[in-house]
Amino acid sequence: MNEASDKMLVYKTLEGDTRAFGILIKQYKGVVFNVALRMSGNNEDAKDIAQLVFIRLYEKLELYDTSKPFFSWVYRIALNVTINFLKNPHRRQGQELDENMAENTVSNSHTIESSMDIQNAILTLSEDYRQVLVMKYYAGLSYEEISKTIDLPVKTVKSRLFTARQKLKDFFLKNGIIEV
Amino acid sequence: MDEKIINLLQQEIDGTNSAAESRYVKKLCLRDPEVARRYKELELTSRALEGLGYIEPPLSLETDILRTIDPEKYSIKKNPVRIVFDWLNKFSRERYPVPAFAAGLIAGAVILFLVHPDRKTPRHTDYTQFQGTLSQKNLSQAAGERHIISAGDLTDVCGQIELQNTPRSAVITIHISSDAPVEILLSPHKDHLQFKSMHVEKSDSSPDLSLRANSINLIHDGEQIYIVSFYKKAAGPSLLNCKIKRDNVLKWQKVLSIDP
Q1: Could you give the CA distance from residue B72 to residue B75 in angstroms, rounded to a whole number?
Q2: Residue B122: is it exposed, middle or buried by C-beta count within 10 angstroms (0-12/13-18/19+)?
């Protein structure tokens, strides 16, 4: 994603050009959806969250500080919206990975069952650990980028990532997802 | 296990170790089976997480979002009468229909007075100015690398065009020539008040977001505000010549130098 063109698209959106906002959606919908999906573990929730994220982005676009990277602002909003969404007691029940998603998720090295186990393991992590892990694996951010996005020192990011991986490792070993 | 070693193991998994650090991790793994086991576990965990992969978002997502947002929210073309009407409508529905109606009449009269064409006495029939120097800070980027001049920079270092109370539909031509390739980009920005009232006359060869041309025709329509940014596309010093013409009369010409 090109930072300069993102900012240009922001300016154009602020001038009332919704096509420019459409381009921003195209550029970020994949990552936002995948982050929401891994945070929520539910396809429908992820779609709702992604929609809410872009609506919030549009509503708050005037507040975007152009001296900072646009992507980190997008991801920060994505995380906040997701966390608030997941706190809503009225959201649809059943957090487990749905079958359709599991089928799409399966890679060469995973069966549907193990993919569901991995996703469910991610859901067992507390929000603090889950968001760092999701930013790392499903938004592809570096330690520094995660640190900027969630306003934490790089050292804390690394430490949370390590703890998250340790917790998942225990779960994976226990459930036979990995064998050493 | 030592925090430093844990950190190195994690960085090795994430591919952020230096060559020396990688060698050190390998050495540690060979020497200490406990470290080797921890490394293996971390690596397998990481691979399992990567294996979940990327899921394509639903096709309808984009259209659903665009359907939901208010396209007029940032439109500077929003009619002021409409804004007042919306506000009054909300106000009268909620509580006070009669005062709202009276307020509407007064607001209407004020708007009519303000927007009446006779009030638009031009302060300047044409006023253009360029200030400052396009400095190295902003323009001597590596070849091919883009750099956006921010609104703040523009005030001091880039060309400014101010067109206040000029007649509608004036055609303004900016001619740029340079001894180095320069890309001209126009973008609307409502907060940048120096750039007023221009609309890019798009030619077929111009993509939506940028114009790669030496000459731009702008139609002043009384609504849009544009930032004019110049991107120098090659490294090193160069000269940038700008001419601005309005209504077929060359009003102004100046050479802007780009510092080495």
Answers
A1: 5
A2: exposed
- Mutation site for A-interface testing, chosen from B41, B47, B55, B56 by largest number of A Cβ within 10 Å: B55
d(CA B199, CA A65): 26
Q: Does A66 touch chain B (CB under 8 A)?
A: yes
Global pTM reads: 0.57
Amino acid at position B188, single letter: P
Chain B contact for A56, CB < 8 A? Answer: no
**Structure confidence at residue A73 (pLDDT):** 93
Tell whether B15 is within 8 A of chain A (Cβ). no
A35 touching B, CB under 8 A?
no
* C-beta atoms surrounding B55 within 10 Å: 18
Average pLDDT in the B130-144 region?
33
B15: closest CA of chain A, how far (Å): 10
Q: Confirm if B180 and B233 have CB atoms less than 8 A apart.
A: yes
The predicted structure's pLDDT at residue A156? 95
Query: Which residue stretches of A41-153 are H helix?
Result: 43-60, 70-87, 99-105, 112-124, 127-137, 143-150
Contact between B42 and A179 (Cβ < 8 Å):
no
Closest B-chain CA to A61 = B74
CA dihedral A24, A25, A27, A32 (to 10 degrees): 130
Q: Which residues, 6 or more positions from B190, have their beta carbon under 8 angstroms from its beta carbon?
A: A14, A15, B74, B76, B225
pLDDT band for position A98 (cuts 50, 70, 90): low
Alpha-carbon distances of B137 from A70, B255, B258, rounded to whole Å? 22, 19, 10
CB B160 within 8 A of CB B154: yes
Q: What is the pLDDT of residue B205?
A: 36
A48 vs B225: which has the higher pLDDT: A48
Residues B138, B147: contact at Cβ < 8 Å?
yes
